[in-house]
Design brief:
The chain is mainly alpha-helical. The protein has one domain. 87% of the residues lie in helices and 0% in strands. The chain contains four helices and no strands. It starts with a helix and ends with a helix. The mean pLDDT is 87.
Length: 113
């Protein structure tokens, strides 16, 4: 796999795995809206890997920001549920996706401008 594909596909694949696990947890806890939101993110990340290849960096940036937003919402749901530590993992996930998105945005600006 070439370097550009690895750089753009890896964050999306990791997000699809993370949000698929969150989807199973949400449906197991009978929180259907949260499960559907996570399922939408899984489908969006996998679709971006398969179908949106014209501007892969910009697609990864856009979905990375959406992944971060959903990760922060997930952290908030865990905070409201009274969990002790899992919300910090989701906050860290959101921060990492924001960092990766802005890093890829800088690389895309250098490539396309």
């Amino acid at each position: 796999m070439e370097k550009t594909k690895l750089r753009t596909h890896l964050p999306l694949l990791i997000a699809a795995i993370i949000f698929s696990l969150a989807t199973f947890g949400a449906f197991y806890n009978q929180n259907y809206w949260w499960g559907l939101l996570n399922l939408f993110m899984v489908i969006a990340n996998l679709a971006a890997i398969k179908y949106f290849q014209k501007y892969p960096e910009l697609t990864t940036v856009f979905l990375g920001i959406l992944n971060a937003i959903v990760a922060f919402i997930t952290a908030w749901i865990f905070i409201e549920a009274g969990k002790e530590y899992i919300q910090f993992t989701w906050i860290l996930t959101g921060v990492i996706y924001l960092f990766v998105s802005f890093r890829l945005l800088n690389l895309a600006q250098q490539k396309y401008l």
